[in-house]
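Two quick folds needed for the group meeting slides. Do the first one here.
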Amino acid sequence: MAISFKDAVDDATDLSEINTTPLVDVMLVLLIIFLITIPVINTSVAVRLPRQTTQLQESQPQTVLISIDAAGQSYWFDARLTDPQTLQDRLKQAAAQTPQPAVHIRGDARADFAAVARVLYACQQAGIAHIGFVTDPTDHGH
């Protein structure tokens, strides 16, 4: 087994070449960190805000919830509506409120379309401007 020794000339050439890849990696990471933190530093100006009691400027209207079950029966929130005139009267009262509340209709998927259409027509006759339908966002594979 022979032992080989490097020449002194080879050692000088190896030391003169420096690998700059780790240096570039570190500089890129620092650049990214500075780009992320500089906007946070600029927007966090110390300001002493004036104190004042907060008051409710405008009352938010309550959303009216009308449900229609599979048999076609209508409900005002949880109270069953026995006749169409009761629904019409309550919708007129809601339409007269300022600001006017939105009406959300929860129709059973098995309900007849005519029952939902009657509620929509009553909303239109009462002058309700905002009507929405409540749906189930989960997909049950149907």
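Then this one, please, same format:
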Amino acid sequence: MEDIFMENKKLFSAKTAAVIVLGSAVMFTLMRFAAIPSGIPDTTFNPAPAVVSVLAVLFGPIAGFFIAFIGHTLTDLSWGSLWWSWIIADAFYGLLSGLSWKRYRVDEGIFDVRSFLLFNGVQIAANAIAWGGIAPVLDVIIYRESLDTPFLQGLVAGGLNSLVVLVLGSLLMFGYSKTRVKTRGLNMEQSADKKRHT
């Protein structure tokens, strides 16, 4: 049963393309209108990373990459300038978050302690790589920033993102798994009714 489930999880499909469009729009909305300044220049606390993480887990690394890339690009455009180092870092965060997508069974209604630990271990590692490495290094290379500010911003951004994914992302994953349990239960009941009436 699990093998069949895994085979049905395609890396890219029409459904994935639709999720990328919708997810990018949601990310833009959250980054643009639900962001709270952190007190450190150009860093905010917002729920967008949780959405990226969950969609990357459900639809794979390609979806995660493009949702984060497009969503962040649209947000920067709305402010009037593109900050490529952070756009690229966000895109890689989405990609890294989705690399373990086939190891979850959330579509079967399962988000247990093991899944929780995997989900958050991956997202914390992805945040550390994206914001502790990619973003500040590219800030220095592309924009000739001094070493101190980009790494402080990256540390704050990565920490805040990890926190929001730990809380909100985990709740979204758990909630989604519960809807799958209900759906599976309804399908089983419908199958049983059909057998009784044949």
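Slide caption for protein two: The chain has one domain: 2-183.
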